[in-house]
Amino acid sequence: MALSNFDKFFLNFPTFDRQPDFDKFWEKSISESKKIPLDTSISKNNKKTTGRFAVTEVEFSGSMKTRIRGDLLIPRGEDRPKVIIHLHDYNVQNNYQQNILDNSTAYFFMTMRGHDSIAETAPGEEKKSPGYMIENILEANSYYVKSVYLDLLRCIDMLRLMPELNCKKIGLMGKGLGAAAAIFGTVNSDRIGALALDTASFAQLDLSQNLSTGDAANEINDFLTAMKGKKKLVKTNLSYVDALNFSDRVKVPTLVTVGFKDTISPPECIFGVFNRLLCDKTMEVFPEEGNTAGGSQQFQKSIRWLVDRIRD
Description:
Strand content: 15-25%
Helix content: 25-40%
Largest sheet: 9 strands, mixed
Order of helices and strands: HHEEEEEHEHEHHHHEHEH
Low-confidence stretches: none
Shape: globular
CATH superfamily: Alpha/Beta hydrolase fold, catalytic domain
Number of helices: 10
Strand order of the largest sheet: 1-2-3-5-4-6-7-8-9
CATH topology: Rossmann fold
Mean pLDDT: 95
Number of domains: 1
Number of strands: 9
């Protein structure tokens, strides 16, 4: 079964559905975003600071001046370390474990906009979906996912202005929707040295919207069920943020993780992105696992992989 799935997934070579104004849309959006002052604020977090990392809470102005926050971990004893940015998945907490991080490198764990108040679901409690994925979905210029992507670019600009960090070659890592944003960030920043995509979602949307059981897909599908007359407009607007439409422009080494039993990030869509990458690329395949493919061991492996490629 695993071998037959691999053959089916590997043969997925999706077509792009970039709109005629795709490049102009993003050139204008990025240009307008750069005009917003970063207005960065930094405060030390003594509770999270350990003998391995000094931890500070950082806030800056993201797209449309929304305040974006995250935790910056700087390893003790390292002079101007390289940095890895991590962006989590949709509707999950921005959790990380210091003890599994390589302490030769700094890290910025960015919290996706609107996720400061996302709470961990208790056992037996139904998980609530925040509804962000349909926020301004009928307006491409102000759509939620567009802002998430631009927030990551703003994050890169914010970190490169910190004198204590070496941001000439940044490692970028994302999970799910965070991985889709990481693809966009890599394509639109010349400071990214390597990219790690953990079960990427929000890619090849014409297929994944029909397969994914994740909160992001469900929110959009529920909206379309209630607003059937808006399907064409929504499809057009989503094409601007479909990670597939950026994939062939990635130029840095890329590591991709996929689980064949993943129902949130459909493996055929991950293979679709992987097959369209034109860079040095590697895929870690977990035939018997789902959205948590590889677990903490794979996360550590991805971190080490990034560290090795941004070290020079």
